[in-house]
Amino acid sequence: MSQPEQGNGQLPATPVSGVDDGEHRRLAPRPLDRPSVDPSLTAAFGRPSGVDSAFDGRRPQSYGTNGSAGTMGPPPPEALATAFGRPVDGADLKLQRPPGSEHAVEEDIDPVFWDGKPAGDPWRDPGSGAVIGPPAVGEKASAPSAAKAAPGPQLSVPELLFGRRVKPMALVLLLVAALLVGTAGGLVGWLFGRAGNPLTDSGVTLAEVKPAKERPVGSVSDIAKRTTPSVVSIEFKGANISGVGSGVVIDGEGYVLTNDHVVAPAVQDATAKLTVVFTDGKRAVARIVGRDSKTDLAVVKVEVSNPTVIQFGNSDDLQVGDTVIAIGSPLSLSNTVTEGIVSALNRPVTAAGENGGPQVTYDAIQTDAAINPGNSGGALVDSSGALVGINSSIQTQTGNSVGLGFAISGNYARKISESLIRTGEVKHADMNVNARSASAETAEGAQVQNVPAGGAAAAAGIVEGDVITRVGDRMVRNAAELTVAVREHDIGENVPVVLARQGRELTVQVTLKSD
């Protein structure tokens, strides 16, 4: 590469050579390497000829192009000229004067700051950078506020009471304040509680009767206490059937008298089991000793020791109006006692047999003592506590008691139960006739419909169409009463029978046979 010419404003290159000052050898500066400049770039970006500074003072100010004077723009609006232009009087105002210092005498101060304030205001510092920050305020207001003091550690109860971090007097005052607040709160609560319900009185004390309740001998309470242990509940449960009835313990060997319709479901369902439940909660499995479906009576036996046995009374001594008490388990409510009177005696009751069995007919005691489903087989006792009947049925249109209850006569129930215990079966006296109820203007009775050959009625000369009006000493007013009147006698007994035949009254002797 050739050396650049001198006189073009470029420094001459100096070859690298060593300089020896006599003591140390030093290296000379490295020669400058100035590459040549492209003339086209010099023409485009270099200084014009005759210009030694950065600005050309010879060029007139112009808004046009190609050096020609340009056209001035329109004058600014009057509002902008008034706000930002020079005053009309042409006074030479200087910038950066503080408000109210137009006539102040200038002092030799720093043109940037005044009033002796330090350079802390960016609005007064032309060298500060333009940034987006908080609003510019005074130095005092803009000074960062002191950080909030962090909360101190909280004191626990032991530290408060025993840590000696609180003055004793402060603790005493705190305790007194707590007691006052608690006392005031309790007083307010007491006042509100007392005035809250005017119908209550927390200080009331009711009078108490000191003497004991008098229960004389023979009262309902006394009778119930003596007889309820001998009345039991009989439960029957099977795969498809269950229910509860009542029964009466009539013998110390565990014999229990009840209704036949109470134990019949257990006979019809092989899966059913009978259980006797005593008043003390003791339970025992029951076995059927015998049944009499014609009179709706049955006897079962349980294996128990020393059961309470009821005593039979004489039902023939009852009079209408005598007090009687029904005991049993109505609607599965065991040990229920109800009181009533004898409403009627010798009331023939007829009911359909269980599952197509023979018709049930018995001589009943009518009572208004409440008898409901579940009372069946329970005891009807008189005012002495003796058994005078076995509760059996009710007459109702609602399914519950309406004051028309019926019990099998106690004397007759005793006769049937003794036969069942001895032989397991019962034979009844029978006249061997089929009859229906009949009534006329002057008489009523049981009209004979059929007289089987070889029967007691046929042997006595009774014929079809005869109306039987009396058997022995008992009047007959319907077919049911004929049945119960005959059953009052023994098999083989010769009984006088009064009948009406073709307008005439006849008396024949009938020797009763077995059914």
- Count of alpha/pi helices: 10
State the secondary-structure class: alpha+beta
Mean pLDDT: 79
Radius of gyration computed on alpha carbons = 67 Å
Overall outline: elongated
Largest sheet: 6 strands, antiparallel, barrel
Distance between the termini: 164 Å
Number of strands: 22
Beta-strand percentage?
A: 25-35%
Please state how the strands of the largest beta sheet are arranged side by side.
3-4-5-8-7-6
- What is the helical fraction, as a range of percent? 10-25%
Low-pLDDT segments, ≥5 res: 1-19
Short description:
19% of the residues lie in helices and 26% in strands. With 515 residues, it is an alpha+beta fold. Strands 3-4-5-8-7-6 form a six-stranded antiparallel barrel.
